[in-house]
Design goal:
The protein is mainly alpha-helical. It contains 4 helices and no strands. The two termini are 20 Å apart.
């Protein structure tokens, strides 16, 4: 990307999010994010990360494969 945009590698590297090539979901991180939003009073109700992910379709990201 740096080659084609003319931007420094460090700038691009710090701005690109991680996307798993198999589209797996980091279930533990989703739970952590839900807990944070609740702690900031930005999420109403008693939803948990597990309730937001339909595991019939989601592929969990194993800890050894996380980035």
């Amino acid at each position: 990307m740096a080659k084609y945009t003319g931007r420094p590698i460090a700038e691009i590297d710090g701005s690109i999010g991680y996307i798993d090539r198999d589209a797996r979901i980091d279930v533990a991180d989703i739970a952590r994010q839900v807990a944070w939003y609740k702690s900031q009073n930005m999420l109403k109700g008693d939803r948990t990360g597990d309730q937001l992910i339909d595991m019939r379709y989601a592929l969990p990201l194993t800890p050894s494969a996380s980035h």
